[in-house]
Amino acid sequence: MFKKFLVFFLAFVAMGVSVFLMYWNYLRPSEYPVFIESFDNGVMTVNKSGSTGEDQKFRVMCDRGETITININPERTDTVYYDLSKLYVNGVDVTDQVSMLQYKTEVNHKLTILAYFKKGKRPAGYTASSNLDFPDSPTIEKPFEVSYLGSEDAYDIKDPSVIFDEKTGYYYCFGSDNVVVRSKDLIDWTDRREYFKVPENAESTAVMNFDQFPSVKKWAKEHGYDSDLVYSTDENDRTPLGPCIVKYGSTYYLYFSLCKSKNTNEAAIFCVKTDDLEYAIETKIWTDVGLVISTCGYNKGENKNDIGYSYYDASMAVHPNVISASGKLYMSYGSYYGEDKLQGGIYLVELDGRTGLLKQKSSLSNQGEEISTVHGKDRFKTGKLIARPGKVPALGKNEGSMITAADIIYNSENKYFYLFTTYGDEQTNYNIRVARSKSIQGPYVDYLGNAMDEFSASRKNNQYTKGFKLIGGYNFEKSSAGGASYTDVGRAAIGSPCVFKTENGEWVMASQSRLYYKANGEIVAGDKIAKDNELTVNTASALEIRQIFFNMEKWPLAVPEVYANEKIGEAVSMANMSGNWDVVVFENGGNESDKSAVERSVSQVVSVIGDVVISENDIKKQREIRMDAIEKSGKIAYKINIDGVNYIVYPVKAWDWELSDGTLTFTGIGEDGSAIWGKKSLSSDAGIYSDTFYYLLSLVDETTRAKYEKKISKISNNPSQSDINAMTDELVDRIKKMAASEAKSETTKK
Question: pTM here?
Fold first, then answer.
């Protein structure tokens, strides 16, 4: 009996063990969490994925039995240097097992990884950029508390127009909605004021008193405003839009537009003037010059109350831009509203230099369709069409076809006129595009030779394939290493450019932009939480100044960082380029972002070691690229290939506003016509930099690999830049010899 019981008991135990083993092997969870915590002055990633969370803690899920790579990234910049002190895994000290700032382990249970860092001494020759002279820290008297660049007064400014006044020594920036600010250095903007008188008891200082300008008052009455010159509750009705301030002779001319409604092209452009800019702003006393041009959404020659349908003029009288060329005065204007509603375009007319108004006896001003002014007696022509939008197939209501806010400049050194235009929607995907011409009248063509005044409705060649995309929404999400502010989410809706030369001879561009931002971990716009946690933008625009320069091919390029009086064109050696780069590519053509609420270009990490350039995508595709230096006309650039596209990039020593330190950046253009930006990452030895070394190591034979693994074991787990560079140079030479030997062998076989 006992034997039977024992057999039964043992069988039961065996069955229990089998069930337990079955559960252990098959039924229990196949993924395990890896909890990572990194103390200050360093961050970590797992298998190049995952992002740091609050307090630099995050969790990743790994498959059972998976071998993971922990990349330890101590903070190392020109001003600070930290080493890894201790690394614990489930409470066990594994510091000695760290190799080249990496630790590998197999996941068969929950892991808790904890890293400590200590302040160290920078090895000689460590920092690739330590010998570079970066801009000084900009001084901002009134920093804005909502994490934006520049002063408080630079916030909530749209459609900037900037001019320098020699009398006061100030740069003045005029914006839409009756706002003007001034600055001595283009960095700190102060003294926010209105430039026009405001009606008594007005709810907003953005509106203007029409009584001060007879031409405005006359137009408003003719276009349906009541006796008090109040049309409706639409905030645009009496708000000056898209101002343009210019100096012609000794007189300052201020051009601006009024738009009766947001949904039609019933608008007009006016001009006022002064001989004393500061006095006019202070007293709000300007001399009325008159109506320049007017458009209307009603049928030609008929009273608006008699017609049964709306007629749209071919153009829209908004966003004036005035330029002097060859002794003549010209004005571009226009937007995406026009005939058939979303058509419109950018038009060019000639002005009378004596009056500042439209020149009637001009072949240029008499081109195009006649404009219907409804009750006005003056007859106008649209002028010459120099850029136009177009329908984008598969996009409802032409969302992708918007073009507006143009600016024309002339570069006497390059002997080109450059047309800067704004594409997209002001709230979401504004972006700035460029084309050029030898004549102010065009045709303006982009980097790939597309004419801006031609129109194609094909999906392949639509409006979004035209114009060199200089800048759009972007996010340098890799470079902050958890230590930046709004870099974690980015900037959006960059548009309405004003390009001008400073008193120091620098080309700069003023524009408006908006912020992506988060509050309490949730992405919000104003007080509204975005649906499904989609990125959104701040509801107000802010003034942004960037320096631009012209490359060897005479195309403008924008500096990735906001203006800090950086010096363009200073030499940066190949050795200075080594390190990790946070890279953004502004794709030119139409894409899904044309239809989405917010468009931005997100960065990836690109590693430069010696003359080897490898991106995250290149590693996945097992591809390594060489970097070549180019020098022409006194400019030093580098030819690189990222993700299969060749780019010519120019280094710029800039100020990192997010991290409050000097930073090395680059800007360039690709053979496909796409702009590219790079910003040196916070930790030059971290993450992909180690991955790049190990990737190169995988390309050599087993004997060579074993040799270098022995070298690695003798190096500190906190290698210096020179340590990695020295071994990488040897590896690159070895790979070159292997390639040459293989090529010779193939030739011998043939």
Answer: 0.80
Q: Measured between alpha carbons, how far is 537 from 526 in angstroms, rounded to an integer?
A: 9
Q: How far apart are CA 544 and CA 486, in angstroms?
A: 15
Neighbours of 572 (CB within 10 A): 20
659-to-29, 538, 547, 656 alpha-carbon distances in Å: 41, 21, 19, 6
Please give the pLDDT value at position 251: 96
Residue in the block written with tokens 């930073």: 663
Residues 517, 148: Cα–Cα separation, whole Å: 10
Tokens representing 706 are 């074993």
Report the C-alpha gap between 50 and 728 in whole angstroms.
Answer: 27
Distance from C-alpha of 583 to C-alpha of 605, rounded to nearest angstrom? 6
Sign of CA dihedral 183, 188, 193, 194: positive
| Nearest-angstrom CA–CA distance, 652 and 547 | 10
Q: To 5 degrees, how large is the angle CA 95–CA 101–CA 104?
A: 70
Query: Residues with Cβ < 8 Å from 485, sequence gap 6 or more?
Result: 147, 658
Q: Which is it for the CA torsion 499, 501, 507, 513, positive or negative?
A: negative
For residue 320, what are the CA distances in angstroms to 241, 245, 279, 330? 9, 10, 23, 10
Structural contact between residues 512 and 157, judged by C-beta atoms closer than 8 angstroms: yes
8 A C-beta contact, residue 669 and residue 648? yes
Residue 469 phi/psi, 5° resolution?
Answer: -75, 100
Which pLDDT score is estimated for 592?
39
CA distance 537 to 430: 12
CA distance 685 to 115: 17
Alpha helices (runs of H) in 164-229, residue ranges in sequence order: 214-222
Alpha-carbon span 253 to 259, nearest angstrom:
20
User: Quick check: 464 and 592 in contact, CB under 8 A?
Assistant: no
pLDDT of residue 497: 98
Peptide bond into 443 cis (omega under 30): yes
Closest alpha carbon to 265 in 380, 179, 345, 176: 345
Give the residue carrying structure tokens 């060579």.
704
**Strand locations in 528-660, DSSP E?**
528-529, 542-550, 556-558, 579-586, 601-602, 604-609, 612-615, 625-626, 628-632, 635-642, 645-656
Q: How far apart are the first and last CA of the chain?
A: 85
Beta carbons within 8 Å of 668's beta carbon, 6+ residues apart = 551, 557, 637, 647, 648, 649, 650, 675, 676
The SS3 of residue 182 is: strand
Using H for helix, E for strand and C for coil, what is the string for 572-586?
A: CCHHHHCEEEEEEEE
Residues 6+ apart with CB under 8 A from 130: 78, 122
For 480, the token pair is 């902050």
Query: In the chain, which residues have pLDDT < 50?
Result: 50-56, 125-128, 145-147, 231-235, 300-302, 304, 306-309, 392-400, 459, 480-489, 518-536, 590-598, 683-689
pLDDT given for residue 63 in this prediction: 81
The Cα 536–Cα 527 span in angstroms is: 12
Inter-CA distances, 701 with 407, 604, 708, Å = 57, 30, 11
β-partners of residue 723 are none
Beta bridge partners of 491: 474, 515
Residue 61 bridge partners (DSSP): 33
Contact by Cβ (8 Å): 293, 361: no
Torsion (CA) 51, 57, 63, 69 in degrees, nearest 10: 70
In terms of DSSP bridges, do strands 625-626 and 601-602 run parallel, antiparallel, or are they unpaired? unpaired
DSSP code for 97: G
